Amino acid sequence: MENQATHRIWLTACLLALMHIKGVCGWRLPLRRSSTATLDYRFLMSAAAEAHAENERNDRVTRNKLVVILAGPTAVGKSDVAAKLCAQLRGIIVSADSVQAYRGVQIGANKPDKAEMEQTPHLLVDVADHMENYNAAGWRRDAMYCIQRLVDPNTDSSGIVDEIDIHDPHFRRNRGFEIEEAIQRGLRVKQYRRESSVLPVVVGGTMMYLQWLVHGRPDALRPTDDALRTAAEIMGRFEIVDDWEGAAQYVRNFGEAFSHQASKLCGQDWYRLRRILEVALTVQESSDATLVDKPYSGEREGSLKSLGYDVRCFFLCPDDRMKHTAVIDKRCEQMVQRGLLKETADLQLARRLPDMAAKAICYRQALDYLERSDAKDEDEIAFQEFLDMFTTATRRYAKKQMQWFRKDSEFVFVPVAVSIDQTARIDSTTETISHMISMSRESFDAMRESQNSVSALTRMENEMQGKQMKFYQTKRHVLKQDSVELALALREADHCTNRIHATNSTSM
């Protein structure tokens, strides 16, 4: 792409020089189509316009420090839209997915395959080992590194990130080198000049990651080691029996500040509830009276905007939640068909299933099914119950994502036409976002804040459609009753279950 642009600029320069000679000397340029040596005027002018537009885009990324954020519920097509944007705007994807960050997981993480990675490089995929606790703070640090290196490649990499906590036992100093290698590999794959700016397109559905990146670090206290251990033990006892109300009440008992934080959670967010408990326990241990009075200030530090970036945040919102939910169900079945249970069994038996993944939707339901105490072969009832639990949990998470981002005014809601052909849907959504990226900052903000904009109406319609979701009826799309696909999936499920139980009985 870079060589083509340089070639076109050179041809344009030649044409302009010839035009200047024509004007001075009165020469007539032989622009007949029949001559093999003829310069096609229209081609050169279009090439010049394209090269000029590309240079303008590159300059704008550098000058305004442009960053694009793409969020959305699962199965809405975020990755496809991001890939098309990158192809059009000279970008590279930065993954904002808490499970994709771990090595080893693939199907359950909906991780891009090798061909997709070659077509559109992804950063922050496969950056954490299964033993690591890769959290929002660590991801934000790494994402900021990627963003700054892409936007301003001439920045001294040794001084890019000044927020590394050397006391964090989970921080690996060599991760920065791994990420830098991934950046350089992505530039080579796309044939981008290393000295030119690249548009960071941050894509994912992990809400906490995106909140930390867009709005900055929260003001909560750093928990003590004792608080971390105690909170994990307490929450573990509640979570193993699925007693969410009991766990929430336990946290609320620590005081109004913690009760308020717990009330803001979307759905049964065990991770965030444990984080609140960690702060509560840290305050309880402290002798500082000011911490007891006000453990949270409500302020954040280090937002992208405060660091000088022109960040454009978009939430891809399905225009029909009922049809989108059916897409979610079908996708879950396809993941099982592609080998989700085998992948889970392999990772569990090798003791390489990350703790974060084991608690995540799909792997958690798969483990519960594989490790059930009353397992028997050809148990279609248990298999169907597993599918129901998997699809229900995924639908609930999509609902939580919509609720979360409806409250975030920084995100522009972009309607995604679920009913139309996939290619047309991706093209239409990409065109809409590309147009809004090209707007001036003032125009973009005015549109984002308008109560009559498409974004505001889409946000409102999405909330209203939620009332109809109670009428949604689950049905099988791939693993249908008496189908060959179901029989094959059930056979593999039995095999994986027997492997798990055989290993467990041997180790007892």
UniProtKB/TrEMBL annotation:
Cofactor section: Mg(2+)
One of the GO BP terms on file: tRNA modification
Residues of the signal peptide: 1-26
First-level EC class: transferase
Catalyzed reaction equations: adenosine(37) in tRNA + dimethylallyl diphosphate = N(6)-dimethylallyladenosine(37) in tRNA + diphosphate
EC numbers: 2.5.1.75
GO terms of molecular function: ATP binding; tRNA dimethylallyltransferase activity
One Pfam family from the record: IPPT
Alphabetical UniProt keywords: ATP-binding, Magnesium, Nucleotide-binding, Signal, Transferase, tRNA processing
Family per similarity comment: Belongs to the IPP transferase family.
Name of the protein described by the UniProt record: tRNA dimethylallyltransferase
